[in-house]
C-alpha cells in the first residue's frame, strides 16, 4: 500500500527523471526485489491496508541497477502436456495459495452512536463503515457534539449524535465519509452562496474538507448527473476538491444499469410520412436493429466524462453499484479497465434461497467473480436484519465471503505474477547490455520454457538420428546465446532421451556468463561434448557447419530483441539442411484499454515515454478485440537480400464502448514440428512466466463505441545502427492518432554491442 501525499508526488517525479536519464533497462522478474517493495514507501501505521491508495512505480537509480533487464522471456506450450516429463505433470504444481484479503464495508444512514455502530459493525465482521459526513435533518457534522437543543430534538429519533472523542485510528481505519446530497440538482450545487447563513447545507467541497480534517481515507460521492450542464458543474467541483487532497480519495458511486431503458426500433410506432406523401415509408427503409443502449448516455459514459474532466486524477476512483437487472455483457467488461475501488451491493439485489439465506443471481455472481479478480472491495448497502445467535457475522457478509472463496482460485503462476500487475518495465537491450547473474537466475526459474526447448530438440534429434549414425561426432548442435547454460542442459537431456550422440558448441558474448559456463563444463563432465565459445554469434567463425542451432533470443513481441538480425548473421554456419530452433515466430497485436498503465506512462510527463514500448503484466485492462497476427520471421532465412523491415495494417471491431489507451503485443513461436511456445491469450502456453506482453502507449486516449472500426498501422524499421517500431491508431475514420516514435526518436533497439 502506498499513500500519496505532496512529498511522495515530488519524489515520484524526481525518480521518474532519474529513470529517463538512465539509458539502461530496468524491470522485471527479480525474485529478490519485487516491485511491491521498491515503488512504494513504507505504509503509515495510521491507515488500513484495505484502503490501498494509488501509487506510481518509480524506482530509484540504485533500484534501476538492481532490476536492470529482467523481463523479456517466454510462455509455454499447449502441446504434449500429457508427457510425464512435463513440469506441470508434478502434483506440486497445483499447490494452493491463500486468497487475497477481501475487505467489506457497510453503508449506514442512521445510527444512535457512532462508536457503538462501529463496534457492532466490527462484531458482525465488517472492516469499515460508510456513514454520512453531514446530517441533513439535524444539521450537524459527523464527529461533533450536539448542542442541548439538538440533543433534545435527537432524543426522539434513532439518531443521538456524534462522538467528539473518537480516536484518530478509528477515523483512519473504520470510516468512509458519505457525501450529501445523494441526488445532484442545480440547487444542491449552487448552495451555499457567499454570505449564506451557517445553517445552509454545506457544499461538497466543505464536506470533503471536513473528511480530510478527520483523516478519513476516502469519501463516497454521488453518481454523475445526466444533465450536461449539471455534469460539467459537478466535474468542476470534484476536480477542484481533488487538487486540494493529500491522502483522502474520492470514490464516485456509479450504478451499473442506466436509468434509460433499452428500446428496440421495431417496437416504436412508425414515423409520420414525409410532407406530401400519401402513405408511410416502406418497411425496408426503417432499420430493424436494436439500440443496445442510449448512445453516449450510459452510466459508464457519464463516469468517463467525469474522469476526463478531472484529468485522470490519481485519487479519483469509482464504486460500482449492482442493480437488480444487469446490462448487456458488452456494457460490463469495460469496468475491468477502470479504477474500481469497490462494488456496492444493495440489500434489495439479494434473493432468498430455499433455506432462507441471502444469495445472488447467477449473473450477479459471475460479475462479482470478475471483480474479485480485480482485487476490489465490497460495500453492503442496507440492513440485513437480525444477526443469528449461532454466528454473529452478518448473513450478507457471510455470503459475499463464500462467493470469493468459491470463485477465486490463486494458482502458483498468479501468486508469482501478482507483484508485477500493471508494473511498467523497459524491455531488454540484448546487444548493448550484458545480463547480470541474478537476471539469468530469474529466467532459469521458468521450467516450462526449457521443457519446451528440450522437447523441440528431442524431436529434431529423432528426425536426424539416421544422419547422426553416419557422422563420427554425431549431430553438431550449436546453442547461440548460451547464457549460464539452461539451453545446454536442456539439449543434453534431449540427446540422452533420443539416444543420439551430439557435439555441442555453446556460444555466448557475455564474458561473465562464459566463466559460469566453463565452471559448469568442468564440474558436470561436459569436456569433450560441449565446447565453450566466447564470441558474438554474428562474427564468430565456426570451424564446422551445424545440423541444429538453438537460441532463446525472443522478446515479448517476438522480434523486439533482435532475434531476426542475430540469427540471420549466424545462419552462415548452418548446414544447408540444418534446423533452426525456433523455426519461426509471429508477433500479435490488439487494441487495449488500461487506464492504470496509461496514467503511469503519463506520470513521467515526457513525450519519450509515450513513444516507448513497455513490458507489462497487464491486469486492470480490457482487450477490445481478439489479437491478430502481425509480423512473421522464419529461420533459416533464404531471402536474397535479407530484409527485416515490415509494415502492416490490422482492422478490429470494438466489442463494446471503451477508451483505447494503446496497443498490446504478444508472440507465438513454433520451436520445431508441433512444439508451440506462446503468450498469445488464444494459444497461451500454460504455466510460463518468462514473458509478459509488450505495451505500446497512445499519447491521447481515443473513445470508441461498440462495433466501431479500429485500424492499427505498424512499422518495423531497420537502419545500419538500430531497429525501432512506429505505430498509429485510427477509429471509424473520424479520428487518427499521431504516428508514434518516428525515426526511432524516443525508443529503439541498438544493433551495436
Automatic annotation (TrEMBL):
Domain PRMT5 arginine-N-methyltransferase span(s) in chain numbering: 413-581
Keyword Cytoplasm attached: no
Domain PRMT5 oligomerisation, residue spans: 584-749
This protein's UniProt keywords: Methyltransferase, S-adenosyl-L-methionine, Transferase
Gene Ontology CC annotations of this record: cytosol; nucleus
GO biological process: methylation; regulation of DNA-templated transcription
Domain PRMT5 TIM barrel: 125-406
One term of GO molecular function: protein-arginine N-methyltransferase activity
Disordered: annotated span: 1-22, 78-101, 265-296
Gene3D superfamilies listed in its UniProt record: Divalent-metal-dependent TIM barrel enzymes, Hnrnp arginine n-methyltransferase1, Vaccinia Virus protein VP39
Segments of skewed composition (Low complexity): 276-296
Keyword NADP: no
Name of the protein described by the UniProt record: Protein arginine N-methyltransferase
Organism name: Paramoeba aestuarina
Amino acid at each position: 500500500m502506498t499513500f500519496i501525499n505532496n512529498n511522495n508526488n515530488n519524489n515520484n517525479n524526481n525518480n521518474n527523471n532519474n529513470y529517463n536519464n538512465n539509458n539502461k533497462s530496468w524491470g522485471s522478474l527479480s525474485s529478490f526485489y519485487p516491485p511491491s517493495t521498491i515503488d512504494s514507501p513504507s505504509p503509515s501505521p495510521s491507515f488500513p491496508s484495505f484502503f490501498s491508495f494509488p501509487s506510481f512505480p518509480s524506482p530509484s537509480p540504485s533500484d534501476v541497477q538492481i532490476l536492470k533487464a529482467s523481463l523479456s522471456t517466454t510462455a509455454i506450450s499447449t502441446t504434449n502436456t500429457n508427457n510425464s516429463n512435463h513440469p506441470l505433470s508434478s502434483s506440486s504444481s497445483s499447490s494452493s495459495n491463500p486468497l487475497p484479503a477481501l475487505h467489506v464495508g457497510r453503508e449506514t444512514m442512521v445510527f444512535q452512536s457512532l462508536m457503538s455502530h462501529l463496534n457492532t459493525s466490527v462484531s458482525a465482521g465488517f472492516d469499515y463503515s460508510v456513514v454520512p459526513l453531514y446530517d441533513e435533518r439535524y444539521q450537524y457534522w459527523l464527529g461533533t457534539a450536539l448542542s442541548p437543543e439538538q440533543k433534545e430534538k435527537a432524543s426522539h429519533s434513532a439518531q443521538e449524535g456524534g462522538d467528539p472523542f473518537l480516536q484518530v485510528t478509528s477515523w483512519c481505519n473504520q470510516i468512509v465519509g458519505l457525501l450529501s446530497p445523494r441526488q445532484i440538482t442545480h440547487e444542491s450545487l449552487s448552495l451555499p452562496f457567499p454570505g449564506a447563513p451557517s445553517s445552509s447545507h454545506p457544499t461538497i467541497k466543505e464536506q470533503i474538507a471536513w473528511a480530510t480534517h478527520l483523516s478519513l481515507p476516502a469519501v463516497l460521492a454521488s453518481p454523475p448527473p445526466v444533465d450536461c450542464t449539471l455534469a460539467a458543474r459537478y466535474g468542476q467541483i470534484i476536480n477542484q476538491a481533488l487538487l486540494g487532497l493529500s491522502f483522502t480519495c474520492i470514490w464516485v458511486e456509479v450504478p451499473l444499469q442506466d436509468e434509460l431503458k433499452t428500446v428496440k426500433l421495431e417496437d416504436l410506432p412508425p414515423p409520420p410520412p414525409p410532407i406530401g406523401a400519401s402513405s408511410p415509408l416502406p418497411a425496408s427503409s426503417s432499420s430493424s436493429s436494436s439500440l443496445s443502449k442510449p448512445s453516449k448516455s450510459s452510466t459508464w459514459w457519464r463516469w468517463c466524462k467525469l474522469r476526463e474532466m478531472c484529468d485522470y486524477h490519481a485519487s479519483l476512483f469509482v464504486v460500482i453499484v449492482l442493480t437488480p437487472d444487469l446490462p448487456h455483457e458488452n456494457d460490463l467488461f469495460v469496468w475491468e479497465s477502470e479504477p474500481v475501488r469497490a462494488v456496492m451491493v444493495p440489500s434489495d439485489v439479494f434473493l432468498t434461497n430455499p433455506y432462507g439465506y441471502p444469495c445472488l443471481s447467477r449473473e450477479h455472481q459471475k460479475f462479482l467473480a470478475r471483480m474479485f479478480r480485480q482485487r476490489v472491495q465490497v460495500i453492503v448497502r442496507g440492513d440485513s436484519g437480525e444477526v443469528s445467535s449461532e454466528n454473529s457475522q452478518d448473513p450478507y457478509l457471510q455470503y459475499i465471503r463464500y462467493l470469493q472463496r468459491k470463485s477465486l482460485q490463486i494458482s502458483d503462476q498468479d501468486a508469482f505474477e501478482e507483484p508485477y500487475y500493471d508494473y511498467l518495465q523497459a524491455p531488454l537491450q540484448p546487444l548493448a547490455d550484458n545480463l547480470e547473474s541474478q537476471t539469468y537466475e530469474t529466467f532459469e526459474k521458468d521450467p516450462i520454457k526449457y521443457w519446451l526447448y528440450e522437447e523441440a530438440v528431442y524431436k529434431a534429434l529423432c528426425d536426424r538420428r539416421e544422419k547422426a549414425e553416419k557422422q563420427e561426432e554425431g549431430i553438431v548442435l550449436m546453442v547461440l546465446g548460451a547464457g549460464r547454460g539452461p539451453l545446454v542442459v536442456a539439449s543434453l537431456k534431449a540427446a540422452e532421451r533420443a539416444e543420439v550422440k551430439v557435439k555441442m558448441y555453446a556460444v555466448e558474448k557475455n564474458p561473465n556468463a562464459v566463466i559460469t559456463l566453463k565452471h559448469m563444463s568442468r564440474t558436470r563432465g561436459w569436456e569433450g561434448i560441449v565446447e565453450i565459445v566466447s564470441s558474438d554469434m554474428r562474427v564468430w567463425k565456426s570451424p564446422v557447419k551445424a545440423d541444429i542451432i538453438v537460441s532463446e533470443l525472443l522478446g515479448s513481441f517476438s522480434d523486439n530483441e533482435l532475434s531476426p538480425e542475430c540469427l540471420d548473421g549466424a545462419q552462415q554456419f548452418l548446414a544447408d539442411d540444418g534446423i533452426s530452433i525456433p523455426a519461426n515466430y509471429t508477433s500479435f497485436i490488439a487494441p487495449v484499454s488500461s487506464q492504470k498503465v496509461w496514467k503511469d506512462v503519463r506520470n513521467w510527463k515526457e513525450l519519450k515515454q509515450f513513444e516507448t514500448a513497455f513490458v507489462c503484466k497487464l491486469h486492470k485492462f480490457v482487450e477490445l478485440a481478439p489479437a491478430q497476427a502481425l509480423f512473421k520471421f522464419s529461420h533459416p532465412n533464404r531471402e536474397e537480400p535479407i530484409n527485416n523491415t515490415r509494415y502492416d495494417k490490422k482492422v478490429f471491431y470494438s466489442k463494446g464502448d471503451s477508451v483505447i489507451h494503446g496497443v498490446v503485443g504478444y508472440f507465438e513461436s513454433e520451436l520445431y514440428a508441433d512444439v508451440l511456445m506462446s503468450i498469445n491469450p488464444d494459444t497461451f502456453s500454460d504455466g510460463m512466466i518468462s514473458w509478459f506482453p509488450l505495451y505500446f502507449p497512445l499519447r491521447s486516449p481515443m473513445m470508441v463505441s461498440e462495433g466501431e472500426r479500429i485500424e492499427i498501422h505498424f512499422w518495423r524499421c531497420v537502419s545500419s545502427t538500430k531497429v525501432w517500431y512506429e505505430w498509429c491508431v485510427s477509429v471509424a475514420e473520424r479520428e487518427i492518432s499521431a504516428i508514434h516514435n518516428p525515426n526511432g526518436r524516443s525508443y529503439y533497439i541498438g544493433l551495436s554491442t
